Amino acid sequence: MRKLFVFLVAPLFIYSCTYTGPKVVIKGKIENSKSPYVYLQELTLDGNGITDSMLLDNSGSFKFKFEITYPMFYSLWVGKENKIVTLLAKPGDRIKIKGRADNLLNSYTVSGSDDSKDVQILSRHLNKTITCLDSLNKVYQQFQGNRNIENIHNILSMNYDKCLQDQRQFSISFIKKNPASFACLMALYQKVNAQTYVFDKEDDLQYFVSVDSALFRKYKEAPHVNALHTNIQQMKEQKNALKLQQMLSIMGGKAQDIAMPSQKGDTVRMSSFKGKVILL
What is the 3-state secondary structure (H, E, C) of the chain? Predict the structure, then answer.
């Protein structure tokens, strides 16, 4: 940290002298906290965002103040609690948080930022879906060894798929209603577990493109928007490659070799020029 401070102190001083944009203020009150500290972490693409901490006063109040040039996501939590609140701040926002430390995720209220309210809606619905899926998994484990396990498995699978589909439809509806909301970035990349995304990047490409079209022109310098734009180009290339592979498979596998007469009259096969530039 000492080395990082020395490295950044000069450019930060210059930046603070030249930047005239509005500051972001995140303040609030956390009740029943066993920890004296509240933490705020910047959610960066590499996962190495700066974490700041603030000492809660006797009433549980706190206040963070900082500068940003484009919208950014933040995590807020108290002490070692697992219940993390996600916020979305834009330059000039005055965000106010209230909640209980023992159940911060489900108890908190937010004002001063429509984007953070959107994030709250997305987070709570996802949490509801995860709870649904966890409950179904627990029921399945309880019936292990039961002679009707196959029928039970089929019923639970149907309900599991319904939970996932309901979550997907909720996210689609949110994106359609709020196409220009920065919170749509969160909707696109939400997961119900470590391996399963709400959206499939191949089948749901249209929603990624829709959000990109709405955000890229306005926030193209924002890292999260830039990453989405790049990700879409990669997804399109992968989709085109898959289509080509499927087409070749339908045709019977590899493309047939081409044989043509040369200027000398003998037959030359295209495969003999592998790795070389050919002018036809």
Answer: CHHHHHHHHHHHHHHHHHCCCCEEEEEEEEECCCCCEEEEEECCCCCCCCEEEEECCCCCEEEEEEECCCCEEEEEEECCCCCCEEEEECCCCEEEEEEEHHHHHHHCEEECCHHHHHHHHHHHHHHHHHHHHHHHHHHHHHCCCCCCHHHHHHHHHHHHHHHHHHHHHHHHHHHHHCCCCCCHHHHHCCECCCCCECCCCCCCHHHHHHHHHHHHHHHCCCHHHHHHHHHHHHHHHHHHHHHHHHHHHHCCCCCCCCEEECCCCCEEEHHHHCCCCCCC
